[in-house]
Amino acid sequence: MKNILVTGSLHYDIMLDADHRPRKGETVMGTACDYKFGGKGGNQAVAAAQAGARVRFIGAVGDDEQGRFLLGHLVAAGVDASGVQVVAGSPSGMSVAITDAEGDYGAVVVSNANLHIAAAACHSPGFWDDVAMLVLQNEVAPGLNLEIARAARAQQVPVCLNAAPARVLQPELAACIDVLVVNAVEARDMSGLPVEDLVGARAAAEALSASFARVVVTAGEHGVAFSEKGQSGVLPAIEVELVSTHGAGDCFVGVLSRALAEGEPLLEAVAIANQAAAEHVSRVA
Question: Burial level of 270, CB count in 10 A (0-12/13-18/19+)?
Fold first, then answer.
């Protein structure tokens, strides 16, 4: 079995529960607090590993207690963390997320050590020999994604980009992407089309497929749309009792990448990831 290589962020997450998220100038009394492993890159790597993939991770943490916690969690999940750098003088990345009574959340992220990830190893002989897919996100410096995506492309390794959080995508990076995964907001920003239901999600996926070989648009409670080689489709969301949406997108991407790396057709891979995300939002992490 070949590896999935994930390059991305690691965040020490402070999780808060409250009746609602604060509005401008408002102080809200919370109901619970927890501290968790996070970062889109880290979450996706763990999700892929828990789905049965062999996963290598490239990232960075600070030389602090939070960094040791993050590294320990990766290793415990079965992820090869030998490519994670410890950056002296920089704190580990972190976020504060608030989940409301309806299970939705908002977060503030501070990148810290994630801005110092180096991709030099990706140019080493043999680095790509055991890699079936590269998975990227937008929580790291754009130059890092471009450098490692170009290296993967040169070795004919497929590249999956979860373009989150939304930002302008460099044309040079776009040219390296084989699989684009975006949520409704990101799809709207990239396609210029409204994405308020599965009809809009499918239209956005079709529009984006003019630039990317495979496109997946996750539309939250509505479901997911996808497009490939002029063919598109949708899958409705699986009805579950919602506990929390936190990390659902990362679970979807991790499981999707594992399925695609194993050669599953796009429809089957999306269905597998859709099921995994439904199970994720319906349980307490």
Answer: buried
Residue 72 CB neighbours (<10 A): 12
Q: 146 CB contacts (<8 Å, ≥6 apart)?
A: 170, 172, 173, 176
| Average model confidence (pLDDT) across the chain | 94
Active-site residue list: 250
* DSSP code at position 38: E
With a threshold of 0.70, does the pTM exceed it?
yes
**DSSP string for 174-226:** HTT-SEEEEEHHHHHHHH-S--SSHHHHHHHHHHHTTT-SEEEEE-GGGEEEE
Q: pLDDT of 127-164, one tens digit each? A: 999 999 999 999 999 999 999 999 999 999 999 999 99
- Of 103, 99, 107, nearest to 17 by C-alpha is 99
262-282 residue pLDDT tens: 999 999 999 999 999 888 877
Cβ count near 142 (within 10 Å): 14
- The identity of residue 222, as a single letter, is H
d(CA 267, CA 128): 27
What pLDDT sits at residue 59? Answer: 97
Q: Which residues have C-beta within 8 Å of that of residue 112, sequence separation ≥ 6?
A: 62, 90, 91, 92, 93, 94
Identity at 98, one-letter amino acid code: I
